[in-house]
Every structure is written in structure tokens, then in C-alpha cells.
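Exercise: predict the fold of this chain.
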Amino acid sequence: MAALGWLTPRRRSATARSVLAGEASAEAARKSSQELEDISPAPDAVKEPEFPVLGDDRAAAFFDLDNTVMQGASLFHFGRGLYKRKFFETRDLARFAWQQAWFRLAGSEDPEHMQDAQNSALSIVQGHRVAELTIIGEEIYDEYMAERIWPGTRALAQAHLDAGQKVWLVTAAPVEIAQVIARRLGLTGALGTVAESVDGVYTGKLVGEPLHGPAKAEAVRALAVAESLDLSRCAAYSDSHNDIPMLSLVGHPYAINPDSKLRRHARDMDWRLRDYRTARKAAKVGLPAAAGVGAVAGGTAAAIALHRRRR
């Protein structure tokens, strides 16, 4: 894989594995985005007049996935779908379920849980074809993920699309799953964890490391270089303090459904805040008007999802 050069300074150090993971994810995202250019964005979103700036093609938006765009952890929903298709045993599903419950109650990621889930996913998909998992990912999106998209965050993404800007998901989830979600939402593409494959078959290893923490910032930096973006004009959205490196990289950082550490940091840094879990108003004004409507819808959707009986 050809390495991408760096044209922008790093604000904090990253390991060689973080850089490798970021570059691999950026390369995968650029390849997949070529297939998404003919997809029309969803209609009827309301644009904010000042931001994003209409026609600014050197700006883009980067959205974390879990608990930012979608309620809960995508990797756990994916595991649930694989269990339904008999990829693994009941005891593994029980562990996935506990980790998902912890994530939803705590509202933040546990690094040990995330690493355990990543390792489990790698062992489960080893020997399977990439094309097979992509097809299954489409089915799992419809079964478990579609109803968990936060309308408010979706409206923010649509505001960038309506302004003529590209919008990317940035997530520790497998890049193939992230690309499915981006395609179904009409986004430009996705940066995700890249699992090694040989002749279209998963080896059970990663390229670099999971796209988490500093690796996300490296992926965004690599993509910005390749796409000739000005990061000072770009926006990033996340719920987790683990994404502070990514948020600090752009000129317009947003804390969405923030955990307690990110909320404190965002207030200290005067970043914009919005919480769709309870439909609270933003701590800072200036977000697209569509997001305000989406906040109420997002709170309602969350309540329904929490109490709905699953089949």
C-alpha cells in the first residue's frame, strides 16, 4: 500500500501503527467513495446560512458513528446479526450483549470492551470472503441499525451535503460495515478499521490497529491530504473524549451526545454542544435549524427503541 505524505502538522503524537491504520482507512474510504457519487442526498434538510459555507469544496465533515450518528455500538449490532446467521456461539452473544448494555448505560466506550469485541470479530470473520460480509452487512443494517440513526445528527450531515461538501463517517467499526452505513445514509464514504484480506478472504489480522483515538485523527489527516482539504475549514462531530484528537484537528469541532469528559473539554474549549439523548438545547447556538427539529425526533426514537420488544 502506497504511503500518503503529510502536509499538515500533528497536534499530538501517534504511533506507527496509528499512522498505518489511518492511511489504510483513508485509502479504503477514497476507493469506496467513487462508487457512491451517483447517490442523491436525502431531501428537505434545512441549511444554516453561515455554516457550513455553501460551495466551499475545500471543507468537509467527519462524523464519528457510535452514539453520534447511531444509538449504541455498531460492532455489537453487527455481532448480533452474525450470531443470527450462526457465525458463533451463544456465549459470545451474551458477552456482546453485556458490552452493548454497558455502552448504552455509561454513554462512553470501554477500551477493554472495544478491544475484546474487535478481537472477537476478527476471529469470527477469518476465512470468510469480504464480499460475503458486505452483503450480510446490508442485511444487518436493515435489521438492527436503520432505526437507531439519530435524526438530529443526520440533519447535521445533510446540511453539509446540501452545502456541496463531502461527509465521511470515521469509526473503529470494520470499514466494510462503515461503508454500508455511509451508503445507506447517502454520505460520501467512510473511514473504518481495515482488516487484512488476501485474494478477497479475511486473514484474521488488522492493517495497523483499530481506527480509534489518535488513529482516527491520522485517517482524517491522510484523507485531507489526498482530497486537498483545508482542515481549518472542516468540521468533526463525536460523542467520545477518545475522539478529542480528531476534533482538535479541525476548525469546527462539535460534541454530540458527549460523555462527561468530552462535555467538560468542549466547554473549556468553547466548542459547540448538542445532546439528542434528552432533546436538550445546544449549549452553543449556531447549529443548523434542522438539527433542532431532529433533536426532538431523536429523543422520541430513542425512547421507542429502548422499550420496543425485539423479535
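Check your answer against the key: Strands lie at 60-64, 166-174, 189-193, 195-198, 201-206, 235-238, 252-256, 272-274.
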